[in-house]
Design goal:
Keywords: 2Fe-2S, FAD, Flavoprotein, Iron, Iron-sulfur, Metal-binding, Oxidoreductase. By secondary structure, this protein is of the alpha/beta class. The chain has 5 helices and 12 strands. The mean pLDDT is 88.
Length: 185
């Protein structure tokens, strides 16, 4: 049983591919929920999932999606299915910037300079400044935000480590300015 939830049919990723898989594997059941029409899948109780898959407690289960959805799914499975849920979270716990860090970020390809705090990911700094920065981080496409460091160093917000040499690729979603920084965006 595969449950795929998104805002609308037009926003549905891999729509044709899921149809092909269901055709190839008669034992595969798919359910698509379009939240703009049907509302979100409610995992605060087992009612919605029970209606889709009555034997869900006995199955291996996998989930990925927004943090709030995963939190609800985890709580439901812990409460009613002794765990048994494997998840992939597309977010990271940030340790926070180093005291006194931050600085002027130069987006060399955009000819733009912005002051940034030491606890704000460079991806957010770029987006707030209107810089077209590559990313797939929020969709689970890790490392899509890798950007060449032209100058300066960055703080890894997961560990607090300050690092970087010109030419290094930095993950802008988990890196903050550790002093003046130049990026090739």
């Amino acid at each position: 049983m595969l449950v795929h939830s998104c805002r609308s049919r037009e926003n549905s990723l891999f729509h044709e591919e899921l149809d092909e898989l269901a055709d190839q594997f008669p034992g595969l059941r798919t359910h698509r929920r379009f939240t703009g029409e049907q509302g979100r899948l409610d995992l605060s109780t087992s009612a919605d999932i029970e209606a889709l898959c009555p034997d869900w407690r006995r199955r291996a289960a996998y989930a990925c999606g927004p943090a709030a959805f995963l939190d609800d799914a985890e709580a439901l499975f812990d409460r009613e299915a002794d765990g048994g849920l494997r998840m992939e979270r597309f977010s990271v716990d940030l340790a926070g910037g180093v005291a006194g860090a931050g600085g002027l970020v130069t987006f060399e390809g955009s000819d733009l300079e912005v002051e940034a705090d030491g606890d704000v990911p460079l991806l957010e700094v770029a987006e707030e400044a209107g810089v077209d920065a590559p990313s797939g981080c929020r969709m689970g496409i890790c490392h899509a935000c890798l950007t060449p460091l032209r100058s300066g160093q960055v703080t890894d917000l997961r560990t607090g480590e300050v690092h970087g040499e010109p030419g290094d690729l930095v993950q802008t979603c988990v890196s903050a300015a550790a002093g003046p920084v130049g990026l090739s965006l």
